Amino acid sequence: VVFVVCRSLEGLKTFSYLEELILDNNLLGNDLLLPRLPHLHTLTLNKNQISFQRNTCKILLDHLAEVVPSLQYLSLLGNVACPNELVCKEKDEDDYQRYRYFVLHKLTNLKFLDTRKVTRREREEALVRGAFMKVVKPK
Q1: What is one process in the GO biological process aspect for this record (predicted)?
Q2: 3-class DSSP state for residue 75?
């Protein structure tokens, strides 16, 4: 397990056999670029600056799908991208569920997202509707 506090992840490429990476409480945003880490199964990005602005979160999720193909556990709690009614009163459980469908549509191997196990029903729903579930705020 590696705990990192940083703004640059350049040095991670030397840890190609890394299995767990905790990047909580940094200033990481949607421009996060990880090196290829084929053995990484756990990634926590809690309390960073990841949001659903434009298509940048889609790009980040596509990037994660490519560079961490073994990813099974992802946590994005405390980021704007993760609509949580405990943190933001404007969000509700439906917002959070749509977020889950969207993330599961992009990262099909996840077994846990945030603190909750991915259910078979969620996985099926993500296949059918996940691409259309991006949570956006109306202007």
Answers
A1: melanocyte differentiation
A2: strand
CATH of the domain at 76: 3.80.10
Residue 7: CB atoms within 10 Å: 8
Q: Is residue 138 part of a domain?
A: no
Task: Assign 3-state DSSP to the chain and report helix, strand, coil percentages, each to 5.
Answer: 30, 10, 55
Residue 106 lies in a domain: yes
**pLDDT digit string, tens, across residues 12-33:** 889 999 999 999 998 898 888 9
Alpha-carbon span 125 to 45, nearest angstrom: 25
Prediction pTM value: 0.84
β-pair partners for 112: 73, 117
